[in-house]
Structures are given as C-alpha cells and as structure tokens.
Write a structure and sequence with these properties.
With 213 residues, the protein is of the alpha/beta class. It has a single domain, classed as TIM Barrel. The chain is built from seven helices and ten strands. The strands form two sheets. It has an eight-stranded parallel sheet with strand order 7-6-5-4-3-2-1-8. Strands 9-10 form a two-stranded antiparallel ribbon. Helix 1 runs parallel beside helix 7. The longest helix has 12 residues.
Amino acid sequence: MPAPAIKICGISTPDALDAAIAGHAAHVGFVFYPPSLRNVAPSLAAQLATRAGDRISKVGLFVDPDDSLLAEAVAAGQLDAIQLHGKETPERAAQVKARHGLPVWKALSVASANDITRASAYREAADLILFDAKTPKGALPGGMGLSFDWALLSAYRGPLPWGLAGGLTPDNVTDAIAQTGAPLVDTSSGVESSPGIKDVERIAAFCHAAHSQ
C-alpha cells in the first residue's frame, strides 16, 4: 500500500509551513473561520501562500461561508482547494465548486455508520470526502483532538476519494492508516504544543510516521 498523502491543517506561521513542506506533506490548510484559534486573516494567508509558492497544495477551510469570504480567501490564499467543514448541502458544495473552479473537499462528522453513508450524497458535488470526528454540540467543528471508531471505515467503498481526520497524532497515525487504508491523513491539534500553536518537531514526527507505511 502506498504511503498516504498528508495534510497539516491550521497553519498560521512560516515555521509551521516550512515544517510541513520539509516533511513532504501534500497539503497545508489555512483556516478561514474567526471563532477558531487557528483562524488566519486574508492578509496573513497571502503572506503564507507567497512563501509556499507551488511547493505544496493550499487548502482553505471554511464553515458555512458566505460568497464574499470565499472570494476574498481564495484570492488571498492562492487556494488550490476549498474544504467545507460546516453543514453545507450537496447543492451548496456544487455551487461553490462551479463559482470558483476549484476542487471541493467536504468534511463529514462521523459518530456512526450512518454518517459514513452520507458521503454518497456528495458524489456529484465534491471531489473528496474528509471523514472527521463529530464534536460535542456547541463545540467548534474539528480541531478538538477527538477521533471516531476507525472500524466504521473498514468496508468503505465510496464513489469519491477520501481522507481521514480527527485526533490523528504522530503516535497513532500509523495504526490509523493500517486499520483504514486511508489515502490521505489530516491533522491539526495532533501536531500542536498547545491549542492553536503548531510544533515543528511534531509536524516532522507525524510526516515521518505517516510515510513509514
């Protein structure tokens, strides 16, 4: 089995960006969601995007965004893909894809097998499904260090490419890949020294562990 692609999400500093590139991650994530500790202003995203150049794919994470935020962030962050992490319907995902001409990733919160089957509804609207852990009611979506039962993905044969998120760390990502066969692994809080603060050594360790498959 080939090593999975890696996404380091919640990048907000040059050091973290450089660590992701040095670790041969395929993607970095810029969070455009003000309530998040990892939120980046378009001006900062522009600086990071310029630093990244074409060395790594830049994914913008949004939660039920309006069109003006999307347009501003896509331009500032020189985004290569748009990740929708809210309650966006297939119709909204298709609209975003058509408007911006970029691949759309749809994050789905998982707590049971029924949540996995929801992926099929996005077969014509999204380019990739990201299975993430469901967070408690009232909490922010994602970035909480929570995981779900990976066994729910053991028989997944969906219509779209997919990735695994939710509580992945340098210590468990190898097991996660072995159990699920995930073609992409996404981490945020799992490579932080404190909430919202990326740790370059943990980024390096995560990339090494994921690529050791």
